[in-house]
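Q: Hi! First time doing this. I have a protein sequence and I read that you can turn it into a structure. Is that right? Here it is:
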Amino acid sequence: MEGSMLTLSLANWMELPGLKLKDWMREKRRNVRNDRATPAEIASYYQHYVSQMSLEQSFACGTTVTSVTRQPGDQEASPPCWRVTGLQRREGEELGDGSAVSDEVPFSLLAHNVVLATGTHDIPARLGVEGESLPYVCHSFWELEAAISRGELDQSSDPVLVVGAGLTAADAVLAAHHLNTPVYHAFRRSVTDPGLIFNQLPKLLYPEYHKVHQMMIQQQHQPSPPPQGRAHNLRDPSAPSSHPPSSSPSSYPGYLSFPRHRVAAFRPDRKCVLESDSGQRTVVQISKALVLIGAHPNLSFLGDNGRPLGINPEEPITCRRNPIEADPFTNRVVAAEGPGMYAMGPLVGENFVRFLKGGALAIASDLARTQREGGDATSDRSMDRWVDRRVTTQTKAKV
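A: Yes, that's right. Below is the predicted 3D structure, encoded as structure tokens:
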């Protein structure tokens, strides 16, 4: 969590129990914003929270979990549990320049309960088009910030292409526009689509995103009609574009939006082929492309990347379209291979900090109740739901 842009949530919605965010922020600076904070401030607050609440011993930093599997019980009446394996980075011998050699030491442990809480931003979503792996095509907002810090972008640069119509894409538009770097902005939806996030945000509370929305509306690419007899050439990415991208005059110079367009291909010569809903193609020369269309969680430590745990087991896990299916009262994973697996946060569709606390409380409450009762009173019910779900999935597959 870095950067100077403002968080989407109100500042007090980001706080954790026992430490008022505004009180902490007041100690750090004189002027306290009433509504929103920066990600850097929130990150610093969370780090301070860990030390303030003496939680350091509960964290194992530098750990990579590589496998979470169900372990059967043994003949000595040891109950089934979860085996968690992975690598722990440990600092080794210190070198002459002050740096240290780090080693990754394998570990393996058994646990009665496992909580999946990895978030969903580990793996950027990809377009799956030709040339997407070229060096000038990026999939992270931080890659844009790094390019800016290296002085690679300025007002004389070829335009930066931003692909996507979410808030991260808007942040990228604002960052490039602030440098007076030209921006092409391509997205699949119409600017009036009710599902567009900008059409759902209050204008007074989110003025910077409202500004981007105004740019998207006012500075739209206006395709020129092709010359007679050459319409087919416009659909050929190898043919030159009939006209350079254009728009009507506006108060946002250097920005041009391409609503209802998709990326057809990226070329090695830093040219990108954009295709409209009608099939007309436009080739644009760019300096860098930022594909910001969402992200997926890294659940590689689970079988089939955790796909069987989703509401739709046939699709990858995503926070919006296909989260992990969990019991709403306990946050137990419905399709887990056994009892004792929970999930919280964006993995189950809880995409805001203010919702995380409810998920954590539900899990803690269920663990406390199970311990108090001396066993897993709901394991039979969980297994019944798992079996019912598997039978339903197999029946649908046969149909």
